[in-house]
Amino acid sequence: MGDSAPSVVVGVDGSKAAVAAARWAVDEAVSRDIPLRLIYVIEPSERQAAGDREGRLATARSALQDARRAVEGTGQPAKVEAEILWGKPLASMMEESRSAVMMCVGSIGLNHAAHGVGSLSASLAASALCPVAVIRRPSGRRAAARVGRVTVQADNTGVLRQAFEEARLRQAPLRAIAVARSAGPDDVEAKRAAHALLRRRIARWTRQYPDVPVDSAVVRGTVDDYLAANQEPDQLFVTDARACYDLCGAHNAGNSILATRSSNL
Description:
By secondary structure, the chain is an alpha/beta fold. The protein has two domains: 7-135, Rossmann fold; 149-236, Rossmann fold, CATH 3.40.50. The protein contains nine helices and ten strands. The chain has a ten-stranded mixed beta sheet with strand order 3-2-1-4-5-10-9-6-7-8, with helices on both faces. Helix 1 (16-32) crosses helix 2 and helix 3 (89-96) packs parallel to helix 5. The radius of gyration is 19 Å and the shape is elongated.
C-alpha cells in the first residue's frame, strides 16, 4: 500500500489501454532497478453475495495475469509484483502514489472504471503525489512501448527536466514548444523574440543532455490546439500536473501524457 517500497505502479482494470500502460512502464522500472507493481482495485458494493465476490476476484486475477504476460513479453528483466486492493479506485491509487516513483494508467480504461463520473485518469494525474503517465493505445494495431517523440512546453524548469530525462530514457527526440497567443502570422518581431526566449529556456538542458536530439517551435493558440493538430501515435507530452486535467481527459485521448510537479523531482 502507500507505505511500501518505491516502485512504478500500474493501474490495471482489464482494458487494452491498461495493458499498454503496463508495457510502457517496463522501461521506467527497469531503468531504476525497482519493482513494477500491478494493482487492480475492486470497489466494494453494498450488497455483495459471496459468489459475486469470487467472480470479481477471478476477473481481477485474470486482468493482472494479462498485464503480467504483456510485461514478460517485452523480454526485459522487470521485477513484477501484483496485488488486488478493495476500495474506491481514485482513493486507492492516490494512496499508492505516496510511495510510487511513477504511476501509469491507460488513457481510457480507468475512465470506463469510473462509470461515467468524470475522468479517473485525469483526476489521478492532477492530484497524485508522484508523476503520472496516462498512456493511449494506438487503435488498429498492437500497442507498443515505444516513444517516438517527447514534446514539452518550455515554461517550467521541473517539467523540462522530466521531459529531457524521459527523452534520454526512451532514446527519443524532444520538441520544445512555446505558445505565442498575441503574435499574428505577420508579426515578425514578436515571433523572433519568442524564438529567442525559447532558445534561452532550453539552452541549459541541451547542454546537460547532449545525447538528446532537440528541435523547437513557437506555436499559436493553446497547447490543446497544438496537440489536436499534431497527434502522433507515439508522442508523449510532458506537462505540469496543475495544468493537465483537460489534456488527460477523454476528449484528448489521442495523446499520451506525463504529468509531474516540480515537487516530484
